[in-house]
Amino acid sequence: MIPLLRASEKLPIMATVRLFATLPKKLLLLLMALIVVVHSEAANTNNVYQPCADTKIQRSDGFTFGIAFSSRDSFFANQSHQLSPCDRRLSLASLNSQLAVFRPRVDQISLLSINTSDFFPDAFGGYMVAFAGRKYAARSQPAFVANSTFIVTSFTLVLEFQKGRLQNLYWKRDGCASCSGKSRSSYVCLNNQDCAIRTSSCRNRGGNVDCSLGIQLTFSGTDKHLSALNSWYEVKNLRQYSLYNVYSNLRDSLTGQYNRFF
Ligand SMILES: *[C@@H]1O[C@H](CO)[C@@H](O)[C@H](O)[C@H]1NC(C)=O
Ligand SMILES: *[C@@H]1O[C@H](CO)[C@@H](O)[C@H](O)[C@H]1NC(C)=O
Ligand SMILES: *[C@@H]1O[C@H](CO)[C@@H](O)[C@H](O)[C@H]1NC(C)=O
Is ligand 3 within 6 A of the CB of residue 210? Predict the structure, then answer.
């Protein structure tokens, strides 16, 4: 049996407190995160616990990053260039936004989950950006999560490091592969890119599908000792959905979408 660790055991409360002190006050912390760590435990050497700070990692370290939810426009300055959510010029704080913080273990395949029973992303602009760092700020492009009609619940995020420094975060699309075999009354392929659920099928919105978000993380590039981070390679080489078997302990906390693969 593969040992599974829960996020709450890995993310010290202190990190939360410091985050509140350094991030704009109104950017509320959404810490309903569940982090699953596959493989064995090893020592953490990264003592940076907040997402808007710079660090260099090695394999087996914890790594803290954030995901901000807001409207697409609010991630851009002057509607032209995208800034990191850590950049105060965006003033995400005064806008309608939410923040989730995660601390997965580097180079291990993790599945993050955000419970949407009390948090519905369309109420906060419907887009999300993953980010970390300040001087060396990296951020993903905004990904569509939800509007009043549709919600996308399954994502893959790649964190790319060079010599231990985060360089890039990007969303890996599956071209709607996860839509195949699903009921057309509930699932829709949006823009040949994302398999979305009609919000009317979600729990709390008149339906019975659990529309919690699941974000599968993978790591690529090199750590500060130039060791290769291989979890992305592993994902590519596994059949896409066989990976969900390793999360079978989470059966009850995942979206209905994943359940059919167990
Ligand atoms: C946005 O535009 C204003 C006025 O043109 C300029 O002063 C400001 O520096 C710009 N902001 C950014 C982040 O580029
Ligand atoms: C929701 O997003 C989808 C896909 O981008 C779009 O087709 C639809 O018109 C949007 N619905 C609303 C109410 O904005
Ligand atoms: C989300 O939270 C609700 C209420 O606390 C709970 O009933 C539900 O099982 C949770 N869903 C997930 C995916 O954890």
Answer: yes
Q: Which ligand is nearest to the CA of 257?
A: 3
Rounded-to-10 torsion of CA 107, 255, 97, 26? -80
Domain annotation covers residue 258: no
Low-confidence ranges of the chain (pLDDT < 70): 1-42, 232-262
Closest residue by Cα to atom 7, ligand 3, is 117
Q: Is 61 in the pocket of ligand 3 (CB under 6 A)?
A: no
Answer positive or negative: Cα dihedral of 178, 235, 33, 223.
negative
CA gap 148, 224 in Å, rounded: 43
Residue 209 covered by a domain:
yes
CA within 13 Å, CB half, 79? 0
The three-class DSSP label of residue 48 is coil
Q: Which ligand lies nearest the alpha carbon of 32?
A: 3
In a domain, 37, yes or no: yes
Best residue for ligand 1 mutational test, from 74, 78, 83 (most atoms within 8 Å of Cβ)? 78
Range of the domain at 54: 7-250
**Looking at residue 259, what is its pLDDT?**
33
Instruction: Judge if the beta carbon of residue 89 lies within 6 A of ligand 1.
Output: yes
Mutate to test the pocket of ligand 2, among 147, 179, 195 (most ligand atoms within 8 A of CB): 147
**What's the number of domains the chain is made of?**
1
Predicted TM-score (pTM) of this structure: 0.77
- The answer to whether the CB of 226 is under 6 A from ligand 1 is no
- What pLDDT is recorded for position 29? 35
